[in-house]
Write a structure and sequence with these properties.
Number of strands: 10
Oligomer: single chain
Radius of gyration: 19 Å
Helix content: 40-55%
Strand content: 15-25%
Strand order of the largest sheet: 1-2-3-5-7-10
Bound molecules: coenzyme A
Order of helices and strands: EEHEEHHEEHEEHHEHEHHHH
Largest sheet: 6 strands, mixed
Shape: globular
Structural class: alpha/beta
Amino acid sequence: MSYQNILEEIDDNILTITINRPKKLNALNRETIQELHEAFKEAKADDEVKVVIITGSGEKAFVAGADISEFSDFSPKEGKKLAAEGQEKLFNYVANFPKPVIAAVNGFALGGGLELAMAAHFRIASDNAKMGLPEVSLGVIPGYGGTQRLPQLVGKGRAMEMIMTAGMIDANQALQYNLVNHVVALDELQEFAEGIAGKIMKNSSVAIGAAIKAINANYEDGINGFETEINEFGRSFGTEDFKEGTSAFLNKRKADFPGK
Ligand code: COA
């Protein structure tokens, strides 16, 4: 499928989705959110895709936020719809994606940009990256999961401070805050992310999907994460990947997972 605002490249089972509106610092307008939804939906169904890396085009920005020009005249009802639809189509969709999603944060990740990076399963930043949730400086609050995911990652006090000050932190501070797992030079970012994707892909994709579900269950209201873990653990025993993984270990050979 061809898109106006995103680029896709698949290499060795790794799909890289690049948000491509560099003149607007890759700000997320409605069309871009819809295209990202379609791209993730296709990636879910495509057996060739084992890991997704999401990044921004250019050297300046991952994503500088939701496109402010699109919602400046919205009513409360339209604002609520914007947040609800965005969360459903993109942010929660990415967070619950059954294949690993790595955010390669290559510059500004602000507002909806940081929210998108936080919806990914983990984050790697380039050393020029800057992150923040500046929404209160615009008279609004984060609406794509930021008030929920930032405290989960950095702790309540730090999230309160970041959101209230609307300030930015640099990549090293983000590392200290556990907001990103690694910081690397900008020109090494993609290769570094692909290296981690390579390690992930040696393992059972079915088990990884189950692990994502169980880990996420800890953060969902009304769901008992331990119970989800028990159920997913039990279900693993019925998969071909489990048969292959255990038999490979016992026969002292490398596993070749069928992904079923
Ligand atoms: N929505 C819409 N357009 C945006 C945008 C956003 N979130 N972020 C940047 N842009 C646009 C700018 O309007 C500008 O467009 P123009 O050239 O047509 O005027 C272009 O991207 C370049 O941005 P500019 O502000 O000129 O770059 P800068 O280097 O001076 O500043 C930032 C970079 C990231 C500090 C600044 O763009 C910014 O503060 N952006 C908004 C961040 C934000 O509040 N995000 C949360 C939204 S809820």
